[in-house]
């Protein structure tokens, strides 16, 4: 490379390096702000609804319905999802202690091969809950959908949510902003399942977006099982 070419190319390369560093710093700064924002949303969610969560069944008010929020029964083939197990244990406990009369089991059923409400119903019956006490919401595709459909489709009176504490907190904030009278009886939290809690931080950011922009459930019909 001639001296003349070097004088032309080197300043150009220095400019690329300069703006490259600027871009990296900008991206890191934006990501840091997003992370801080998510952490603030997470902390505020837990704080705002702190008085709506119960862990002592004796202190829990009696309500007609419990809304059992769905999840997959298995992590993988033949490996039970403890989130699922503990939610059903808790729902059964509420029925047996006369803290609720009926259960609305709400979950995903977008295909004939995946049916959270049907699976929950079958297992609850095996655990001693009569079918007359169980109602299914087959279009609870998200927590947001389940909460709003409980009010708008099934017209539930004040009800108790059954899920793990971190999940209840998000559901209860949705309830607070959408004028839904709900409390939570927290199910046991599986040991060592920290990755789910981390995903919850992201989910709360999405929840705030939905609340701010007036999102509605995917459907307000009483969807049959597939």
Automatic annotation (TrEMBL):
Membrane topology, from the record: Single-pass membrane protein
Protein name: ElyC/SanA/YdcF family protein
Compartments, as annotated in UniProt: Cell inner membrane
Purpose: Participates in the barrier function of the cell envelope.
InterPro entries given in the database record: Cell_Envelope_Assoc, DUF218
Spans through the membrane: 26-49
Keywords: Cell inner membrane, Cell membrane, Membrane, Transmembrane, Transmembrane helix
């Amino acid at each position: 490379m001639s001296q003349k070419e070097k004088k032309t190319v080197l300043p150009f390369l220095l400019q690329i390096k300069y703006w490259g560093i600027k871009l990296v710093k900008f991206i890191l700064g934006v990501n840091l702000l997003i992370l801080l924002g998510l952490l603030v949303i997470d902390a505020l969610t837990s704080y705002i609804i702190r008085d709506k969560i119960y862990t002592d069944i004796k202190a829990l008010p009696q309500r007609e319905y419990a809304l059992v929020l769905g999840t997959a029964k298995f992590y993988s083939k033949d490996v039970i999802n403890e989130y699922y197990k503990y939610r059903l244990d808790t729902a059964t406990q509420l029925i047996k202690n006369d803290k609720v009369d009926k259960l609305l089991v709400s979950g995903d059923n977008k295909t004939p091969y995946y049916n959270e409400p049907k699976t929950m119903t079958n297992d609850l019956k095996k655990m001693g809950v009569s079918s007359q006490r169980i109602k299914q919401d087959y279009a609870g595709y998200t927590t947001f959908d389940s909460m709003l459909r409980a009010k708008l489709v099934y017209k539930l009176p004040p009800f108790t949510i059954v899920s793990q504490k971190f999940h209840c907190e998000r559901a209860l904030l949705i309830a607070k902003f959408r004028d839904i009278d709900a409390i939570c009886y927290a199910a046991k939290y599986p040991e060592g399942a920290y990755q789910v809690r981390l995903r919850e931080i992201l989910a709360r950011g999405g929840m705030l977006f939905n609340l701010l922009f007036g999102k509605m459930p995917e459907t307000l019909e009483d969807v049959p099982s597939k």
